[in-house]
Amino acid sequence: MQSGTISQLLDTPVQVLDCRPLGGGCISDVRVCHLGFDSEPARLNTLSGESLRLPDPANVVVKRNTADQLSNFRCEANGLLALAATQTIRVPKPIAVGTVDGDAYLVMEWIDGKTGRATAGDFQLFGQRLAEMHHASQGSDHGWDEDNFLGSAKQINTPEINGAPSTWEEFFAEQRLRRQLRWCQDQGLAEHHLVQSCETIIERIADLLSGREAIDSLLHGDLWSGNYLFDQSSQPVVIDPAVYRGCREAEWGMIAWFGSCPPEFEAGYQASWPMPDGWQRRVEIYKLYHQLNHLNLFGASYHGACLATADRVLRQS
């Protein structure tokens, strides 16, 4: 990446000394850029208004995509700011978002990951921090003040259904499951059995989600194993959010499917804020949302997982 491009984004003169690809990104070009600063001390203003002091030279993360992805980057930055505001779990500080020469960019703080494998104790602390985040942000409202993205898929967060306020159950049925199911049908990806099972789940959603707490929390929204790490002090860090407010059990849909968290993670969470009885059964419904999204984004190889989960939800009811 060019020094002029990054300088324009940061609104300060820098030299790009080195830039290397960062693995894990399947939507945007993601790189770690090693910057030299023309002034001392090296500071950057973040999107939260904080002045971030950096070593000179310093690393930053730069995401680049086509200009039509600017809204995706803005939503990601807003999600990181919302998570940071809970003051419970570390996230990279978003520094700049904008367009230069027809491309969209998001610049973020670089966080050095822990050397070696995460320990059971690291995951226990991660579970505790996630519970603290959910607890600190608890309230009675669901949805979010803007639509955002789950991967590259638009995530509709409007809490109203047909112009009327919704319950959490109605919101999840309509803005999560039904939207994904219709998209699958439009793409010809959902065979009759899956459609029928999902429609039954949607119709029975109030009963199937009965027993949950009448509490909504801020959710990361996409906690698979590629969206968390541990810093050099073994503190958990979460990245790439798809935030909205909802039942905290919904957070576990992706964790249970692709989180790759050992038992100590759940133990840490439960020790901090125990889950209500029956949560594991209800998590299957939340898992289905993510599986339908994968079916839509990545194709028919995810159809079997969707069908197995939908059938399991109905058998357990």
Features:
single chain, 317 residues, alpha+beta, Phosphorylase Kinase, domain 1, Aminoglycoside 3'-phosphotransferase, Chain: A, domain 2, five-stranded antiparallel beta sheet, two-stranded antiparallel ribbon, 10 helices, 15 strands, 40% helix
Count of individual helical segments: 10
Shape assignment = globular
Distance between the termini: 54 Å
Give the CATH topology of the largest domain.
Aminoglycoside 3'-phosphotransferase, Chain: A, domain 2
- Main sheet makeup: 5 strands, antiparallel
Question: How would you describe the oligomerization state of the chains in this entry?
Answer: single chain
Number of strands: 15
Under CATH, the homologous superfamily of the largest domain reads Aminoglycoside phosphotransferase (APH), C-terminal lobe
Rg to the nearest angstrom? 20 Å
What level of helicity do the residues show?
Answer: 40-55%
- Give the strand order of the largest sheet, numbering strands 1, 2, ... along the chain: 1-2-5-7-6
CATH class of the largest domain: Alpha Beta
User: How many separate structural domains?
Assistant: 2
Summarize the helix and strand pattern as letters.
HEEEEEHEEHEEEEHHHEEEEHHHH
Strand content: 15-25%
Structural class: alpha+beta
Uncertain spans: none
State mean pLDDT (0 to 100 scale).
96
Examine the secondary-structure arrangement and name the CATH architecture of the largest domain.
Alpha-Beta Complex
Structural commentary:
The chain is of the alpha+beta class. The protein has two domains: 3-109, Phosphorylase Kinase, domain 1 (2-Layer Sandwich); 120-316, Aminoglycoside 3'-phosphotransferase, Chain: A, domain 2. Helices cover 40% and strands 21% of the residues. The protein contains ten helices and 15 strands. It has helices spanning 3-10, 70-85, 120-136, 168-186, 192-203, 205-208, 252-258, 263-272, 279-298, 303-316, and strands at 14-21, 29-37, 43-45, 51-53, 58-66, 94-100, 103-109, 148-150, 153-155, 160-161, 164-165, 217-219, 228-230, 236-238, 244-246. The strands form six sheets. A five-stranded antiparallel β-sheet has the order 1-2-5-7-6, with helices on both faces. A two-stranded antiparallel sheet has the order 3-4. A hairpin with a 7-residue loop joins strand 1 (14-21) and strand 2. The protein starts with a helix and ends with a helix. The mean pLDDT is 96.
